[in-house]
Amino acid sequence: MPRQAAEPARVRRWTPQGPLDLALVLGPLRRGPADPTFRATPDGSVWRASRTPAGPGTLRVRAYGGEVLGEAWGPGAQWLLDGLPELLGAADDPEAFVPRHRLVALARHRRPGLRLTRTGLVLESLIPSVLEQKVTTEEAYRAWRLLVRRFGEPAPGPAGTSERPMWVMPAPRTWALIPSWEWHRAGVDDKRAATVLRAVRVAARLEQAVEMPADEAQARLEVVPGIGPWTSAEVVQRSHGAADAVTVGDLHLPRIVGWALAGDRDADDAVMLRLLEPYAGQRHRAARLVLLSGQVPARRTPKMPRVDIGLL
């Protein structure tokens, strides 16, 4: 698809308080190496294409000399620039975190630029999280990539080349009109597709959850059939910067936390939550630091099998 000439960018400069690692802060927003809505470039820039309340927008963020430069294009440009500080963790309070384990303390010392992002957007984290339910990350990333490229729209501004353009995810109504065979072509089974369809029908109410405390937002999300604690936690970690939202029901996280903090390679959710009790109010940050420590138990079971939905 030919690209239009780039419009002038809106610009905002912002000075963070303390160290800031763009890759650590914004990395959780990336859904795989070929995510059409996210790109990191060799010059250290991070690009995001989002569907904001004001419309589609593209944001480019660069950090240098203790300052952050944000450039944005499209109808959503000003909304993205207004939210730039919170996107980069300005609403986060890392000083409230007190390490209780040597491994966690060391991981924190080595990653001083970690902040928890707050996007202020629900659906852009909810839909890919639903696609990640009960399948491998490779399958989920492929589904997100295919559906966004097929039904989204080109990102505003100079967001990539004609060979590899960036895309804004579809609007709620567009998600609702995707034919069943397109979901299947993307490898999405009927259960996950139905969950997305139920969510986009109440998209406005779900987006309003950004004004709620994270636990209340999770409760609102979980009213939608097919959205449980795993999915709602994955969403508010990104939309709210929720420092205490633990991802329960995950295939790997309990074993990783159990191994890192107690040498227990068979830990389940109950064990993980008990080990994270000393970090009440900061349990998600503690779990992230455990993951960043690299202390992962050796795999003893096969990876989650790929599922051919044509056989279901």
From TrEMBL:
It comes from the Bacteria. Transmembrane segments: none annotated. GO terms for biological process: base-excision repair, AP site formation; DNA alkylation repair. GO terms for molecular function: alkylated DNA binding; DNA-3-methyladenine glycosylase activity; DNA-7-methylguanine glycosylase activity. Gene3D superfamilies: Hypothetical protein, domain 2. Keywords: DNA damage, DNA repair. SUPFAM superfamilies: DNA-glycosylase. GO terms for cellular component: cytoplasm; protein-DNA complex. This is DNA-3-methyladenine glycosylase 2 family protein. It comes from Streptomyces broussonetiae.
